Amino acid sequence: MKVGIVGSGDVAKALGAGFLALGHEVKLGSRTPESEGLVAWKKQGGAHATTGTTADAAAFGELLVLSTHGVNTEEAIRQAGPKHFSGKVVIDTTNPLEFGADHMPKLAYGWSDSAGERVQKALPDAHVVKAFNTVGSPHMFQPKFAGGPPDMFYCGNDAGAKKTVHEWLKKFGWNPLDVGGIEGARLLEPMCVLWVTLGITGGNWGIAFKLLHQ
Ligand SMILES: NC(=O)c1ccc[n+]([C@@H]2O[C@H](COP(=O)([O-])OP(=O)(O)OC[C@H]3O[C@@H](n4cnc5c(N)ncnc54)[C@H](OP(=O)(O)O)[C@@H]3O)[C@@H](O)[C@H]2O)c1
């Protein structure tokens, strides 16, 4: 399958490497597709790893991933061209984080709104599913934790798109958990604040969430 990733940071590279390892073609999209870091990523990824503009990546992908800086995501979507997302499943990994003077994470907006909902509003013809936003990029593919596969919470409005993402999450080594419509991002994005806070205060980023059942 052709996977287009709008983004060029750690998440884009980690998820891109995961899709490549599963045998898929991946194009990462950036405003600087020939930057040193992306050229190195392509070299490591092999023949199925390419880069382009964000519009190139969005047009290329049959499945799309959005991994752009949280509060600049709507701007990145405008640059990539919403028409390229039309009818496609879009995995939204973004978190609208901002860091205050105390260097601790906060939501730029949330509780009655979310990045997931803003992305879905900016892409009305796409099927947005929020996922992969509650764990660090080094653990996104084949996470290895003492307690077994961690949970990956996801949400979105389209049942078919969620089924697709559920299957991808399993292939990536997660136990997927559906939390409902895209407004569930109001819950999942604060989970990122919790995870980052624990990473900073505990000095250990090798952490992931798991529900315990009776
Ligand atoms: N890092 C993690 O471990 C992690 C884990 C879970 C979720 N997340 C979330 O996933 C998203 C990506 O995180 P990241 O750490 O990989 O990267 P990041 O540093 O948060 O974002 C980098 C990406 O944002 C784009 N960008 C920044 N400003 C832009 C603007 N004004 N217009 C258009 N594009 C812009 C960059 O585009 P160019 O390539 O053109 O510069 C680049 O692709 C974030 O929303 C983050 O909160 C991160």
Features:
214 residues, alpha/beta, Rossmann fold, binds NADP nicotinamide-adenine-dinucleotide phosphate, eight-stranded mixed beta sheet, two-stranded antiparallel sheet
Describe the structure.
The structure is a single chain. The protein has about 210 residues and is of the alpha/beta class. The protein has a single domain, classed as Rossmann fold, CATH 3.40.50.720. Helices cover about 35% and strands about 20% of the residues. It contains 7 helices and 10 strands. The chain has helices at about 10-20, 35-45, 55-60, 75-80, 115-120, 160-170, 185-200, and strands at about 1-5, 25-30, 50, 65, 90, 95-100, 105, 125-130, 150-155, 175-180. The strands form 2 sheets. An 8-stranded mixed sheet has the order 3-2-1-4-5-8-9-10, sandwiched between helices. α2 (about 35-45) links the parallel β2 (about 25-30) and β3. α3 (about 55-60) packs across α4. The longest helix is centred in the last third of the chain and has 18 residues, at about 185-200. The termini are far apart. The site of NADP nicotinamide-adenine-dinucleotide phosphate has 24 residues, from α1 and α4.
Distance between the termini: 39 Å
Indicate the proportion of strand residues: 15-25%
Topology pattern, helix = H, strand = E: EHEHEHEHEEEHEEHEH
Biggest sheet, in brief?
8 strands, mixed
Count of individual domains: 1
The chain-level mean pLDDT equals 98
Cα-atom radius of gyration: 16 Å
Helix proportion of residues, in percent?
A: 25-40%
